[in-house]
Write a structure and sequence with these properties.
The chain is of the alpha+beta class. It has one domain: Uncharacterised protein PF10387, DUF2442 (NE0471 N-terminal domain-like), CATH 3.30.2020.40. Helices cover 36% and strands 26% of the residues. A hairpin with a 3-residue loop joins strand 1 and strand 2. The model has no long low-confidence stretch (mean pLDDT 92).
């Protein structure tokens, strides 16, 4: 008995939108996939300007957010996989992120004086 493998081509991301509750990705095959933002805690806690600062990586096979060090693959989105980051890792990131935001805010306030 022969079993033939079917090779599935993963579409590429072409555009990304992040709202208060949804991550939507337009794909090269014409589909748009939308997932709950809560799947990706770093995006939930990011500022709107940080959410908007994304770029396609791997020729559209993934999305990277530089400001929050988040990477999401199209394959993972299509498979319905939320972030695999551990609670401990996320908590460390969140503490650093909040400290950075507080520091930036303090510098802006001091510069205005």
């Amino acid at each position: 008995m022969n079993i033939s493998a079917i090779e599935i081509e993963i579409p590429k991301a072409e555009d990304v939108r992040v709202t208060e509750d949804t991550l939507s990705v337009d794909l090269s095959d014409g589909r748009t996939i939308s997932v709950p933002l809560e799947w990706f805690p770093r995006l939930v806690h990011a500022l709107p300007k940080e959410r908007d600062n994304w770029r396609l990586v791997g020729r559209g096979h993934g999305i990277h957010w530089e400001d929050i060090d988040e990477d999401i693959s199209v394959e993972g989105l299509l498979a319905g996989r939320p972030s695999g980051e551990s609670h401990k890792s996320f908590k460390n990131w969140l503490n650093q992120h909040q400290s950075r935001l507080t520091s930036q805010s303090s510098r802006k306030t001091a510069a205005r004086r």
